[in-house]
Amino acid sequence: MRDTFHDTKVVASLVPAVQAATLKGSTVDLQGFGSALMAVNTGAIASAGDFGLAMQESDTTTDGDFTNVAAADLLGAIPATLEDSKVYRQSYIGSKRYVRAVITKNGGTSIAAGAVFILGSPALAPVA
Predict the structure, then answer these.
(1) Domain enclosing residue 32, as ranges
(2) What is the secondary structure of 67-125 as a DSSP string?
(3) Residues facing residue 24 across a β-bridge
(4) CATH number of the domain that 85 lies in?
(5) Which residue, 16, 34, 52, 56, is the most exposed by fewest CB within 10 angstroms?
(6) How far apart are CA 15 and CA 100, in angstroms?
């Protein structure tokens, strides 16, 4: 069996919680890694919640510098409205240094969700 433990790093962007508003995840630094996969896990949705998900990118950690990643820099699709009890994944193939997950509330009450980035192809291994 192959060892991915020493060749990947997992970083939380959105800590799992009940989200009742638009929420910008923590910044994830991609320096030293050649690949990044966002994994999002959803739970219960209250009151016909309508929540969307986007990956954003930037060359700085300044909040206002982040923009949604262009479709050409993403592998995999995320539906416009998240469903309950699902796992979504999307890979980043862009060239910016920082990424983050953003959950946007379009309607309803709340959604239970969290997002992590799995960073791979490290410049230096094993990853600590």
Answers:
(1) 9-122
(2) EEPPGGGEES---SSPPTT-EEEEEE-S--SEEEEEEEEEESSEEEEEEEEEEEEESSS
(3) 102
(4) 2.60.120.1110
(5) 34
(6) 12
pLDDT in tens, 39-93: 999 999 988 889 999 999 999 999 999 999 999 999 999 999 999 999 999 999 9
pLDDT per residue as tens digits for the range 107-120: 999 999 999 999 99
CA 85 from centroid of its chain's CA atoms: 17
Q: Is residue 109 part of a domain?
A: yes
**All residues at 6 or more sequence positions from 44 whose CB lies less than 8 Å from its CB, including other chains:** 84, 85, 111, 112
Enumerate residues 6+ apart whose C-beta is below 8 A from 91. 35, 36, 37, 38, 74, 75, 76
pTM of the shown model: 0.94
- How many domains would you assign to the chain? 1
Token pair 């890979």 in the structure block, residue:
91
